[in-house]
Here is the input.
Amino acid sequence: MTTTALLAYFERVLSLTEAEKSLVAEAFQERKVKRRHFILQKGDVCKHHTFVVAGCFRMYLVDDKGKEHNLQFAIENWWITDIASFYAAEPSSLYIEALENSTILQLRKEDQVKFFDDNLTFNRIFRALTENALVNAHRRILQNISSTAEERYLDFLKRYPQFLQRLSNVQIASYLGVTPEFLSTIRKKMIGS
Amino acid sequence: MTTTALLAYFERVLSLTEAEKSLVAEAFQERKVKRRHFILQKGDVCKHHTFVVAGCFRMYLVDDKGKEHNLQFAIENWWITDIASFYAAEPSSLYIEALENSTILQLRKEDQVKFFDDNLTFNRIFRALTENALVNAHRRILQNISSTAEERYLDFLKRYPQFLQRLSNVQIASYLGVTPEFLSTIRKKMIGS
DNA sequence: GGCAGCCCATAAGGTAGTTTAAGAAAGCGA
DNA sequence: TCGCTTTCTTAAACTACCTTATGGGCTGCC
Here is the structure.
C-alpha cells in the first residue's frame, strides 16, 4: 500500500480513525516521475499538494538573467508544493523537477476541499504542516540576512546531512545563494583548517 | 469596542456567528505598549499571538557580533508573533519592540486551544493566516537569493509604501539586509537616474 | 534654549562573493 | 565501450556591499 508512509506521517501529528485513513487512500493519487521531468513549470497553476514517497525533487526560480535559484529540496516524507500558486490559483513562477526517478502521492485542491475541508482533524493536521513550514521559512530568512555563505553551508551540513550524498554541489550552492565556484573555495578552506 | 478591527479582519476570511464573535471578545486581551518597550525579548517563550490595532512594531534578531536584523514589521491590522517559539514553546531568539506607542490585542496559547481548537471556522481562519504568512515568507526567501539590494529596496517601496513615512532608513536597511550607509548610496543613485 | 541622542549623507579603503575561462574527472545514454 | 554532458576545481579580474570615520541637521527633554 503506497499510502503507508503518508499515513505514518499524518499520525505523527494526530491519530486517525479508520474512516479517515480510507479518505486518505481515496483522495491521494500515486504517480511516478522520471529524473529531469517536471511536476510543475513556470506558467502552470500548481494544482496539487505533493508528498514524496521515494526519490528527490527541487523547486526553483529562474531569474531575469536566466539563473536558477533553488528554494527547496524534498526527499522521502517531505512535501513540495508552490503554495503561492496553489492557494491563490495563479500561474506559478517556479519549477519543480525530479532529481531522481521518484514516486509521489498527490492531493488535488478540489479533493482537499471535498474530502478534508469539513474535517477538524485534517484541518488541524494541515495547519500544523503549514506552521512547521512557516517556522522553517522564518529560520531561513533570518539566516540569509544575518549569516555568511560559509556559516549557511555549515548549518546546511548539520541540518540536512542526508542531502549531501544525493545532491550535487551545484544544487547546494544554488540553495545557499552562492555560485558553485565560491562554494568550492569555501569547501577548500574548510578542509585546510 | 476594541475588537472591531479584529472581527473585520477575520470576516475578510470567513464570516462569523454572533457566538463566535463573543468568543473573540472573550479570548483576546487588549494591551497598550509604549514606544521602545518590548512585548518579547530573547530568552522569553512567546506566549501570545499579537494583532496590532494601532501603532508599529518590529521583530528582530541580534547576531553574535551584536548586530540587529529586522525580520518583520507590523502596523495596523497585522500580526506579529515569533511562531517558532510560540508553537514549540521554546525560548525565543528574537525581540519584538514597539516603534510607536501602540495598542494590541493578544491571544494566549492556552486560550487559543480553549476557545478555538475545536471550532472548524477558527481552524480554517488560522490556517489561512498561516498559509498567507508562508506565501510571504517564500517570496522573501526567493527575493533574498535572487535579487540585489537595490531591487529589494524598489520592491519594498512598491509593496509597502505605507511603511516609508513611519520607519527610519536604519530600520528599512536592516530589513533589507544591508547597512544604512549602503542604503544611502542606493537612494542617492536612484535620485540621480 | 541648549545639550544629548539619533538620523542621514559622504567618502576611502577593505572583504565577500561573482564572472569568465579553462582543464581534469566522473557519470550517463546509446 | 565510446562519446557527451555534467561536475568539480583553480585562478585572475571585477563588483556589490561593508567598515570606519566625519560632519551636519533634526528632535526630544530638562
